[in-house]
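From the methods appendix. Each design record in this collection lists the tokenized structure first, followed by the designed amino acid sequence. Records were kept in a plain field format so they could be parsed without special tools. The example shown here is representative of the layout used throughout.

RECORD:
FOLD TOKENS (347 positions):
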């Protein structure tokens, strides 16, 4: 059964607003030492992930020599480890790993552009705009009209095949995530036009190197039908994994109206949902299940998010700001329920 969501919402509220609500929490997190870098943790995590990736791709080469279709089973660990690379790129984009922006950018380019074919510049631009105004239509690119829509106002404007998608978007959500791995690559290449010449050269060269290296590896190791099948399965599972990590975080939460003047704390807490963690959930969701803490402190190192949780939860209780947390299954149920409700006018 789905885990019931818990929302901390005491009856009493303080008169503090804006930055004054956030300042005491920032002080508490800083005093707890949670803002310090965790270079050792990231060094070990990155090294282990790269070694495991190397092992999986070595296994693909060795299995390819046998001609067995069982090689496709290796697409699953490849997808999981690819998602881990994506989480590292995400953390580097938020300046969580190193003290200097240049080092963080190098880590993001290596893990994003080269290993995944996912542009660091595209991701950072899109994701930073999301963090600045989460769930705010017209400001957050994650709630723009696309294959899916997030408000009834968006839904009633749909025509043709898009109208069909919106009508059934809750049912189609997980199947559509199977295309996300490929969509990320396409979006990254398209975004190159936005960059200056130097940015296009660096980002584009690494994206092309990824595609060329990925294709060369598979076509050298596997017969053409198996290479195509492996690439398709790998990208489908990778997209599904990433989509499942990001889907529970904001869908179905508050969506600020135009003109809303929320301070940083309310803007981030009211629009975000936590998923209760354990070692397995934390691993599979890349620590993003502590979404409230991540949005309040984007540069907070990933291993410190769960440590900040009790501080944030207690602070929200003191000032009367709802803190929403639920189980993994229920988080998907809430997100799908919101998508289903949005499409209701078309049914």
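DESIGN:
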């Amino acid at each position: 059964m789905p885990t019931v969501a818990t929302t901390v919402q005491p009856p009493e509220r303080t008169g503090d607003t804006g930055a004054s609500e956030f300042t005491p929490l920032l002080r508490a997190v800083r005093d707890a030492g949670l803002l310090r870098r965790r270079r050792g943790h990231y060094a070990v995590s990155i090294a282990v992930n790269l070694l495991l990736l190397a092992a999986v791709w070595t296994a693909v080469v060795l299995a390819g020599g046998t001609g067995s279709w069982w090689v496709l089973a290796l697409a699953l660990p490849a997808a999981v480890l690819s998602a881990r690379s994506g989480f590292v790129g995400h953390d580097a984009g938020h300046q969580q790993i190193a003290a200097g922006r240049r080092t963080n950018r190098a880590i993001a380019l290596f893990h994003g552009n080269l290993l995944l074919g996912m542009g660091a510049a595209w991701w950072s631009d899109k994701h930073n705009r999301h963090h600045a105004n989460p769930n705010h239509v017209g400001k957050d690119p994650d709630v723009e009209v696309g294959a899916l829509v997030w408000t009834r106002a968006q839904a009633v404007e749909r025509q043709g095949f898009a109208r069909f998608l919106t009508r059934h978007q809750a049912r189609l959500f997980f199947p559509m995530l199977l295309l996300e791995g490929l969509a990320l690559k396409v979006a990254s290449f398209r975004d190159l036009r936005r960059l200056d010449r130097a940015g296009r050269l660096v980002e584009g060269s690494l994206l092309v190197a990824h595609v060329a290296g990925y294709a060369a590896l598979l076509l050298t190791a596997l017969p053409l039908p198996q290479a195509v099948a492996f690439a398709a399965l790998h990208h489908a599972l990778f997209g599904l994994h990433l989509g499942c990590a990001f889907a529970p975080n904001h869908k179905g939460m508050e969506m600020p109206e135009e003109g809303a003047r929320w301070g940083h704390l309310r803007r981030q807490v009211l629009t975000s949902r936590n998923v209760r963690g354990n070692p397995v959930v934390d691993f599979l969701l890349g620590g993003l299940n502590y979404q409230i803490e991540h949005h309040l402190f984007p540069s907070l190192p990933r291993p410190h998010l769960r440590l900040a949780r009790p501080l944030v939860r207690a602070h929200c209780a003191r000032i009367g700001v709802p803190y929403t947390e639920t189980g993994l299954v229920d988080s998907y149920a809430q997100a799908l329920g919101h998508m289903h409700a949005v499409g209701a006018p078309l049914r």
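APPENDIX NOTE: The chain is about 60% helix and 5% strand.
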